[in-house]
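Ligand-bound model needed. S-adenosylmethionine.
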Amino acid sequence: MSRKTLDLSEALSGYLQQVQPELSDIERRMLEETAQLPGAGMQIAPEQASLLSVLAASIGAVHTLEVGVFTGLSTLAVARALPAHGRVVAMDIDAATTERARAYWEAAGVADRIELHIAPALETLDGLLAAGKQDRFDFAFIDADKRNYWHYFERCLALLRPGGLIAVDNVLWHGKVADKNENDATTAAIRDFNARLREDTRVLHAVVPVGDGLTLAVKRPTSSTTRDAQ
Ligand SMILES: C[S@@+](CC[C@H](N)C(=O)[O-])C[C@H]1O[C@@H](n2cnc3c(N)ncnc32)[C@H](O)[C@@H]1O
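Prediction:
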């Protein structure tokens, strides 16, 4: 037993990769080829991908939201955990990186489960709300521009069914959130997101130190999703 999360040494991090579920050939290619791209550091860690698959499967997710696709690893992780009729509404503004993502999804045989929207995610989410899709989704993963995190969270919460789960990446922001000398707008936005969520009675949440920090929030059955809407 331990009351503190382990520091991951290089050796332990290597061991963690050895005991994770084996990556598929497509996932290996996604990791290797994305590592050569500008912005490679934006990709989620393989252990986060495994966790997203487990989370989506564990709640029997069918309809899901993905805010921030990049080259498609997190989308693939969720899509492969869905039943054949499941759907990911995936959102990004970058047509070039998501073209790569689409090729990987096709190679992995999950492209027909993914509906990609190339537009600012707030527009896509507002479109879903305007179309009356409140309470329709089971799972959401938020991993796009950090300054909009709270806005994404509010909209995803409204779109989720009670008992649905939202996962939010980068909540520990490379450790900057704990450094008083770091006060750039992105770090401030993540601190603000973390502080707001702590007070939010509409969800049950946990902050998990995996990858760059992943917050998991379950929508409580009785929650009103209109509070604090912006
Ligand atoms: C951290 S990356 C996503 C990584 C991805 N989840 C993965 O598994 O590799 C963030 C993505 O958010 C996208 N993005 C930035 N601003 C956006 C916006 N306003 N709307 C939608 N996507 C946005 C970027 O183009 C980028 O691909």
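The longest helix spans residues 95-108.
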